[in-house]
Specification:
The chain has helices at 7-23, 45-48, 53-56. It is mainly α.
Length: 76
């Protein structure tokens, strides 16, 4: 990678996402726990069945941007 390469931020975002998947989004203690029930309207229904389309097509031509709903719920 070259310094100032516009792909640097895209690659760093991809690395951060992989770390979040492996270690959890709260690995550095900066994310507050999401305390939502699965039936709330703010929770992503597609995530509940295991596949949010916003995450599936990330970094492709079909990138839909970040999911407007919550894709992380606390299991209790």
């Amino acid at each position: 990678m070259l310094a100032g390469d516009p792909n640097d931020s895209v690659q760093m975002d991809a690395i951060r996402k992989q770390l979040n998947v492996l270690m959890g989004a709260n690995r550095k203690g900066e994310v507050t726990e999401v305390n939502q029930k699965y039936y709330n309207r703010d929770v992503c229904r597609l995530f509940l069945v295991g596949l949010c389309l916003h995450e599936l097509f990330q970094l492709t031509k079909m990138d839909m941007g970040p999911c407007p709903k919550i894709c992380l719920i606390q299991q209790s």
